[in-house]
Amino acid sequence: MNVDKHLRVVLGPAIDAARAAMRDLEDDDVPGRLRPIAKRGDGRLPVPLVATLLRSIDEDEWFRSKALEAFERKGSSDPVAGAYLRRDTGWWRLVCDAVGERASDEAAGRSRRLERDLEDLRERSLSDRAKLKTARKEADAAARTARASIDERLGPLRSALSDARLERDRALEQADRLRMEAEEARSDRFEAERIAASLTEQVRHAKRMVADLRRRAEEGTSESVPRDPIERARWLDRIAVNSAPYREALTDVSPGDVGDTPADRLLPAGIAPDSAPAIDALAGVDGVVVVIDGHNLLGALDPSTMATGRARRNLIVALGRLVRHLGSSSVEIVFDSGLRDGRAVSRSDDGVVVRFAPEELIADDVIVQLAEEHGAAAVVISDDREVRERSGRYGATVLWAAALADWL
């Protein structure tokens, strides 16, 4: 899917308004990186310059206000471009939905064209079969005519027989050509049917995977040690918490060796790190940086939709409630990135910092780096045991994704 093309069309009125705003500015007032665009006048912009213009609209509030003035002065009524320039609440969702609709329409158009091409192939195949049948009839008729002529006038009509044979040969050559064209049409039809069958099988496989994920999420276990890795890790953590008093009683340390660890300060005694009250306890601590394992939390909420962009966007909106709950503390969520060099850090309308891991890292590494950076002020939320252990080495308080999932 060509996202840049669709984004350029969806935000076309905003781009036109920004270019109109530049034409109204004095040369010295045009931002430096936009001057190559201003020099082009009304000419068509290549994709890199369009990206530069959109980035300037996003980052330069003054320039965005000029573009909005030009947009309103032109009397433009495009709702998506207007929300984008005004930065209305949820503007990015409107832009994403508009791009998705254009991409969906384009995909539907391609599907309809493929269906028409397949139907054309089928019609040509039927037509070629009819031509082949007619050619065979013509050849048979020519042969019968030749044999009748030989029988009637064996001597004088040898030349006529030769002509008939030539006619038959030409008819057979034509029949061969038609047969080859029919075989090519049949091959094209089989290839189209194979592709359709492959797509159907992919859909079935995806449905089986979704059903299997739902089944696994709904199934429990009656064994003393859970089979599921996450449940097994949670079981081990509970054992560690329950056995802590006995280990401390057997450890020969002086009172000064037992410090007030970050976990002791941020999580009161008696509150389990995988329970919703652990999230409530964070509201009383100032300056906390809550770092969330994004895909891990999506899996805890609903494994069947954890890989969809819609689920990610809905989760970011839902985390606005956590931002308001924490007050002076901040919330950052980290996702794995599928794009080269990762994506820039962004902030949602509700104040949630959204990070995507660079191409050379995974989200786990970025989370641990943030834990190292903020130290005792960090609260890491993940069901991944390794992420919790690595973050805890830097003094971070670690909670389960299930705690935040229950709290939400």
Describe this structure in words.
With 408 residues, the chain is of the alpha/beta class. The protein folds into 3 domains: 86 residues, no CATH class; 120 residues, no CATH class; 148 residues, Rossmann fold, CATH 3.40.50. It has 17 helices and 6 strands. A hairpin with a 5-residue loop joins strand 3 and strand 4. Helix 4 crosses helix 5 and helix 12 crosses helix 17. It is elongated, with a radius of gyration of 35 Å. The chain starts with a helix and ends with a helix. 23% of the residues are buried. About 6% of the residues have low confidence.
Report a brief summary of the structure.
The chain is an alpha/beta fold.
Q: Look at the helices and sheets and give the structural class.
A: alpha/beta
The total domain count is 3
CATH secondary-structure class of the largest domain: Alpha Beta
Provide mean pLDDT, rounded: 80
* Unreliable residue stretches: 203-208, 245-264
Q: What percent strand?
A: 5-15%
Coarse morphology? elongated
Give the helix tally: 17
Can you list the strand order of the major beta sheet?
A: 3-4-2-1-5-6
CATH topology of the largest domain: Rossmann fold
Helix and strand layout, with pairings?
Blueprint: H1 3-10, H2 12-24, H3 35-39, H4 47-59, H5 61-73, H6 79-86, H7 91-152, H8 158-218, H9 229-250, H10 262-266, H11 276-281, E1 289-293, H12 294-301, H13 309-318, H14 320-326, E2 330-335, E3 343-347, E4 353-356, H15 363-374, E5 378-381, H16 385-392, E6 397-399, H17 401-407
Parallel strand pairs: 1-2, 1-5, 2-4, 5-6
Antiparallel strand pairs: 3-4
